[in-house]
Amino acid sequence: MTAPLDLSPAPGAAPLPRMILSQAGFEVRAVLRNGEQLLLTLIIPVVLLVLFGATSLLDLGPGRRIDFLAPGVLALAVMSTAFTGQAIGTGFERRYGVLKRLGATPLPRGGLIAAKTLAVIAVEAVQAAVICAVALALGWHPHGDPGSVIVLLLLGTAAFSGFGLLMAGTLRAEATLAAANLVYILLLAAGGVVFPLDEFPSGVQGALELLPIAALAEGLRDVLQDGAALPGTPLLVLAVWAVAGLVLAGRFFKWE
Cβ contacts of residue 153 below 8 Å, gap of 6+? Predict the structure, then answer.
């Protein structure tokens, strides 16, 4: 005799990994549909790479221009996606009540942060492919271990993502928009992306080297330009920023 079919409701949340992956997929689709986000995350880094790599507008010191620029532009792409784009996008999601509705779901704050970080990594993979292709077309000859590059990029992503979410989850959307763009411009100018840090006074240079964008750019140059193994100082700087940013974002992020 066939056992009776049990059709009683069995409510419950999906497993946390499934919720995170589902939210990450939504975040990626949202970025790809947003023209302003694509301009910030892809077009601007590529334009800077071509502009300064194919011309002599800036004195980039000894060595080939493209070998200096390509790692810096990769670092800029990470910052533009993980920090600036994510801070602005999340800030307006918070303003329009999107995050409030997410806060009513079983997805915890840590799960939302994880999902947004995974989405950022997916977008960065596209950025890196495009930037590397353009740089190779301009004559770039990278060296070093790809694994070291991946470690640096992931640590940089964690650092920028944490502080981007901290800003978006604590400030008003308009303040986040202004502050994120201001930080982007300042770090582009003073973070060793297209201007060598040794052009700054020695006292200022030491402080600038502790910025996450400078640590990421210099670490990538150590590997891709000089063929070094995992560079200790940039990794340590990025790790400190990553831990601080993610811990603070997890603690102070507000859904509304």
Answer: 74, 78, 124, 128, 216, 220
Residues 42, 47, 52, CA angle at the centre, nearest 5°? Answer: 135
State the DSSP H helix or E strand holding residue 29, giving kind and residue range, or none if neither.
helix 16-33
The Cα 172–Cα 97 span in angstroms is 12
Tell me the per-residue pLDDT of 120-154, one tens digit each, with 9 for 90 and over: 888 899 899 999 999 999 889 898 888 999 999 99
Distance CA(169)–CA(86), nearest Å, equals 11
CA pair distance 65, 58, nearest whole angstrom: 9
Query: Is 168 in a helix, a strand, or coil?
Result: helix
Q: What confidence tens digit (pLDDT) does each residue in 184-200 have?
A: 999 988 888 888 888 88
How many CA atoms are closer than 13 Å to the CA of 219, on its beta-carbon side?
A: 32
Global pTM reads 0.85
